[in-house]
Amino acid sequence: GVLKPIGDYLVLIGRISKEELKKFDRESKKKGIPVVDKLVENNVLTKENLEKLIEFKIQEIVDELFTWKKGEYKFRLGERLYSKSKCSVLVNPQFLIIEGMRRIDEWPKIKKSIPDSKIVFRRKKRPRLSIEMGEQEKVVLELIDGKMCVADVVASSGVGRFRTYHALYNLLEGGVIEKTAVVAKPRRKERKPIKISIEAIINVLLWTGAILFLVANIVFGIIKRPFYKKNQLLYTQESRHIENYKKKE
What we know:
Arc Repressor Mutant, subunit A, T2SS_E_N_sf, transmembrane, transmembrane helix, PatA-like N-terminal domain-containing protein, mainly alpha, globular
């Protein structure tokens, strides 16, 4: 999966708008500070909120690693995340690993019930409500509209992949939601237009012109004097030279 930067995550959960994020991003670049520090400075986040958010993002990374069947990694001793930020977070690696392993133990039963991220859920008209819903279940239930697939619910929930799947599993097992016959495709992001500088266009045109000029000269040379005519001329000159040599003898 792709883990979103903190700024994008805040937009996703509705804490700030895209326009506000762009504004804070520009201002942070002018000052040479991380955008998260700018968000704290403008009271979008408190320092405590930011610390919890970073811990949450780190746990998401660890959880994602435990789902890998194979992959590559690099150990960088002493390297820090958000090294330029004023906010420093101390995380117990043992707790991260134990929590990650606990979640992975639950993962097989969740994937058995929700095997495909393209599945679409809808709310039951007469739910049994055999579970007591927590905050995560309430957040996820608000997104269930009979149109969004699981992948889109994960992207929009703001509680992370595992927690979203866990909440969906609880809602499904609790009789609150049900699967539909629809199998949707996750919403694709709009591709950004490719920007090409005028200088690059001019260089391409110059190189193209030079290549065409070279090819035209080669083709024209072949047409004007084909290789077989050139060889025929050499052969004729050589034959005449041999005849003259024989006459002299």
